[in-house]
Design a protein that fits this description.
Helices cover about 15% and strands about 35% of the residues. The protein is α+β, with helices and mostly antiparallel strands.
Length: about 425
């Protein structure tokens, strides 16, 4: 399952941040043979997974249930007899997801090792009718602001990258949208999969949304769900363009970075890692003080000069930062914990720049490293815990332990790539 928490800020000097969190996580993204070697996904043997979907209530087969590997291009629907078969599965660990309208979604971890896997019958539990009735009664018949809320959802859900301009939600009518004005939050749910057509990367993305909350007071965006990818059909020229866009999207992704770290090749593959130290800005009072003063001064016309002064203070960044302009070695921020697993562990913050082919020293503004750095893609990686474990797929096991800012913080569903993309690039 994929779960995002994003701190949104459209001004580049003060980068928006992304807490990349998850239960099945949106797994993204070896590249071309001489660029990246990924042991977990580099075997030539493939597996098949087969099974049968039944109703827990009466043990009858369920037809047309969605059966797929989370964050991959491998999926199918169950037959009239409830049977299914997934083929050509590369070796690795996957999350098998089964979803059907009217039933609770279920998932299980499967390990593909080059042999056929015959699963026990999978029983789906019907969704509570009482809960469904509550949701129906709580939903307004017609919301005159639905178009506005849908636009807000789409912008947050798809992200702010170039790929987002070429994406479209094909079934927005399946969304239930509610704006809670008293807490300034947009909440979205859906009983059906959301289908996103991505004409930039050549995918039809099937996203099974579990929850979505956009908090406009804190600037946070939190959403989670399961996802599988369906390749779009296009002419050879279009296919070539999609492959190029996929490669470009992958190259400066957090997935590529983490994969290159676990393979001890992040420098060879173009990543440079620095340390950023941040402290509270002594020139800027706390938000609570600033907001209280501005409210007070706004009600007194004779105090408009004071109001303007506090408005200017409010615009100041809450943190000051400076960069240690010596690239970090791997042991300064990551260490192996077992086969195909590593953990991020460091103090302060990482500043990751993707500058392939760059051999000379980078010139970075030491006092304001994240400001106006438009030459190369860059992101800040902050830990919310002592460490954060990731696997050979470049997947964070508990993504809530990490906050991404900068270019990685601008990504959304529009930039998602399947974990088995290695086999198509």
């Amino acid at each position: 399952m994929y779960k995002y928490v994003i701190l949104i800020n459209n001004k580049r000097p003060h980068l928006g941040s992304l807490i990349y969190s998850s239960m099945t996580y949106l797994r993204m993204y070896s590249l071309l043979a001489g660029i990246l070697v990924l042991p977990l996904l580099s075997f030539s043997q493939y597996s098949t997974i087969s099974g049968k979907i039944l109703s827990q209530a009466d043990n009858k087969p369920i037809a047309n249930a969605n059966v797929f590997l989370d964050n991959a291009t491998i999926g199918t629907s169950s037959s009239h007899e409830g049977t299914f078969k997934l083929s050509n599965i590369p070796k690795g660990n996957y999350t098998l997801v089964v979803s059907c309208v009217g039933y609770e979604t279920t998932h299980a971890i499967v390990i593909a090792n080059g042999t056929d896997i015959n699963l026990q019958d999978i029983a789906l539990k019907e969704k509570s009718l009482a809960l469904a009735e509550v949701n129906i009664k709580a939903s307004p018949i017609v919301d005159p602001k639905r178009a506005q809320y849908l636009a807000m959802f789409t912008k947050s859900f798809l992200g702010n990258s170039d790929n987002a301009h070429y994406c479209k939600i094909l079934n927005p009518q399946s969304l239930k949208l509610q704006f809670r004005q008293h807490v300034n939050k947009l909440i979205a749910t859906s009983d059906e999969e959301l289908v996103v057509e991505n004409k930039s990367l050549g995918y039809k993305v099937h996203y099974f949304l579990i929850s979505f909350i956009r908090d406009y007071n804190s600037g946070k965006l939190n959403y989670e769900g399961y996802v599988w990818f369906e390749n779009l059909i296009g002419k050879p020229a279009q296919q070539k363009k999609w492959m190029k866009n996929r490669l470009n999207t992958y190259m400066y992704s957090s997935m590529h970075f983490l994969r290159s770290v676990i393979n001890h090749r992040y420098q060879e593959e173009g990543f440079k890692v620095f340390k950023i130290i941040r402290k509270l800005n002594p020139a800027r009072p706390a938000d609570s003080i600033l907001e209280a003063r501005m409210i007070t001064f706004a009600n007194h016309p004779e105090l408009q000069d004071s109001l303007k002064r506090y408005q200017e203070l409010y615009k100041l960044p809450p943190m000051t930062e400076y960069l240690i302009n010596t690239p970090l070695s791997e042991q300064n921020f990551a260490r192996p914990i077992q086969d195909n697993m590593m953990e991020l562990s460091y103090s302060d913050h990482l500043y990751v720049i993707y500058a392939p082919g760059m051999t000379r020293q980078l010139h970075i503004n030491i006092d304001h490293p994240t400001e106006n750095n438009t030459t190369y893609p860059s992101s800040v990686v902050s830990l919310n815990a002592k460490e954060a474990i990731f696997d050979a797929n470049g997947i964070l096991i508990d993504p809530s332990r990490v906050t991404f800012e900068g270019d990685w913080g601008l990504s959304g569903v529009a930039d998602l790539l399947p974990i088995n993309i290695v086999h198509s690039l």
